[in-house]
Amino acid sequence: xxxxxxxxxxxxxxxxxxxxxxxxxxxxxxxxxxxxxxxxxxxxxxxxxxxxxxxxxxxxxxxxxxxxxxxxxxxxxxxxxxxxxxxxxxxxxxxxxxxxxxxxxxxxxxxxxxxxxxxxxxxxxxxxxxxxxxxxxxxxxxxxxxxxxxxxxxxxxxxxxxxxxxxxxxxxxxxxxxxxxxxxxxxxxxxxxxxxxxxxxxxxxxxxxxxxxxxxxxxxxxxxxxxxxxxxxxxxxxxxxxxxxxxxxxxxxxxxxxxxxxxx
Length: 264
Hints:
By secondary structure, this protein is mainly alpha-helical. The chain has one domain (5-258). 74% of the residues lie in helices and 5% in strands. It has 11 helices and 2 strands. It has helices at 5-21, 23-40, 58-72, 74-85, 90-94, 101-129, 146-176, 179-186, 189-204, 211-231, 235-258, and strands at residues 47-52, 134-139. It is globular.
C-alpha cells in the first residue's frame, strides 16, 4: 500500500532531523575539516585522532568519555522510539536482536576480516599517495578503565552508524518512496541508488581523516548495505563494526606492526 503524501512528507522531515542531529551533521563538519586541512599542510604530514582524552584529571576524563558515548547514542534511541511510535517493533523489523546469534556472529566475523584487511590496504595506499592523514584511533590516557571505555566507544560507533545509516534510512526510504520495495522485487537498479547514497554519506563523515578513509568507508557502506539487503538483519553489521573499532582502539599499532606497516 502506498503511503499518503502527507505521511511521506512527515517521514522526509523526520529523516532530515535525525541526520541533522547525528551523522549528517558529522558529514558536514568532516568535509569542512578536510577543506581546512588541505589549506594548512599536506594530508600526509597531519594526524587525525578518533578517540582522545578529554581532561588531564582522571575523574573528569572518565566522566566525559562515558557521557560522550551515552549522549551519542541518543539518536539511536530516538529512531527506535519513532518506529515504535508508528506501531512497529524496530528490533524485530531490523534484526537488531539476538534471535540468530550463531549466524549473526559468523557473518559479522567474516565482514570484520574482509573489511579489516581492506581497511589496511586502503590505509597503506592512502598514506603512500599522500591522501590520508596518520590515523590515531585512540589517544586516551591509560587508566584501569581505559579499555572498557574504549569498548563502550566501539559499541557506540557500531550502533550509531549501522542502526541509522542502514536499518533506519533503508526503512524510511522505502516509506518515502514505496516504489523502492517493488523495484527491489523486479530488479536491483533503484535500490542501488539508495545503497550508493548511504555509502557516500558514510564516506563523507570520515573525510576528516583524509580521502583514503572516505573512499574506504564508502566501499564498506556498499558491502554492509548489500549484506543487509540479503539477510534483512542489522545485527551482523553491528558485530562487524564493533570488532573493527575495538581492534583499532585497543591494538592498532600492533596490527600495523604485524602487517609491516608501522612506518606509516
